[in-house]
Amino acid sequence: MKVFLLFGLVALALAEVTRFEGEKVLRLKPVMDEHVVLIRELAASIEVDFWSPDSAEMVTIDIDVDIHVPAAYLDLVSTMLQQSDMETEVLIEDLQVSIDAQTGPTPRTHSYTNYNSWDKVQSWIAAISTSNSALISKQSIGSTYEGRPMTLLKLGKKSSVTKPAIFMDCGIHAREWISPAFCQWFVKEALSTYGSDSQMTSLLDQMDVYVLPVFNIDGYDYTHKSNRMWRKTRSRTSGTSCLGTDPNRNWNAGWCTTGASSNPCSETFCGSKVESEVEVRNVADFLRRNKADIKAYLTIHSYSQLVLFPYSYTYDLAADHSELLKVAEGASSALRSLYGTRYTSGPGAATIYPAAGGSDDYAYDIGVKYSFTFELRDTGRYGFLLPASQIKPTCMETMLAIKYIAAHVQKNLY
Ligand code: 0X9
Ligand code: ZN
Hints:
The chain is an alpha/beta fold. It has helices at residues 2-14, 33-45, 74-83, 95-103, 118-128, 178-193, 198-206, 217-225, 278-289, 321-339, 348-351, 359-365, 391-411, and strands spanning 24-29, 49-52, 65-69, 87-92, 136-143, 149-155, 165-170, 208-212, 294-302, 306-309, 344-347, 370-376.
């Protein structure tokens, strides 16, 4: 009897799902030093989940701050905000209602217009990689912390000689669900338009495109099963009970010098050392092994509608700054041409915030010139909870930006 009870309790603990009833997402608009100080004090005294920027250290005058406030602190926070004269806006009235609305009734099978669980993405990877062996193959680049396989898809016409390549990953941050949805969409589009779309045909004839559909698989799975708002990996760090490292603060690019935290409980924890995260090590190893052929590195995040390029660990301009700016601006206008969605482009540090240890800066520093971070839709109305109805338009417009960059790379091989 006792044993059953114990099993029951363990099962309950394992199945525990974090709920967000009554919790709000607020937009704060600091315009004075006092406002910045207040936001930092708030963050230091209570548990606030920064949506954008992603930590209190990055808060500055004139940049909107989106925070998710747990129910227990709502009264305190609204009193503090009322006492200041800072302008605020409620972005999400009830987080749980928005989560339920986003997830909604989901089909039982994989769907390009819904947010797929890891299990569905995994079976999709297996199925699609055997669907057209002339154009697609898969390879393992290692396993995640919890032992899930990291499978890389390689798109491109088979060739006896090594072709120049583009590498793209999605889902570095677990809760940014539109990102893995885009990688899946890209693979489908590439396969279905090869032979009819002249640009896609020429791209896959002359180059290979590597796609990692979900980088942070453990985190992504956790957002589906336990906590929708999880960002980091799920690894343990010795000496703390806080789990996870920010996989976009763990790379060897000014590691942990700015815009990252050495506190394991922080959402921007840089890890115990460079590449402490096996997922980062696996991808970094692949990039290092293939750096002679990889001409572009694209990494897809959300939200804010940005095309960013190095650097983020320093305000110094990259050696290729003017070319990267031109390409990012061209990509943004290609994207805008479809539905008028506005993107901002520029180097990471100056455009959003300085943040070291990111994958884009690392790829650039090992010699991958065309290195871009995309922050997809939206600008905060739904944030990470972008409704499934926006997957198709978001992916269609983003395809134009990615194809614009790919065309530039193809014409400017180095
Ligand atoms: O902070 C990040 O890692 C990215 N923004 S997000 O809201 N998706 O977390 C921006 C990354 C920009 N590049 C670097 N900081 N290297
Ligand atoms: Zn992100």
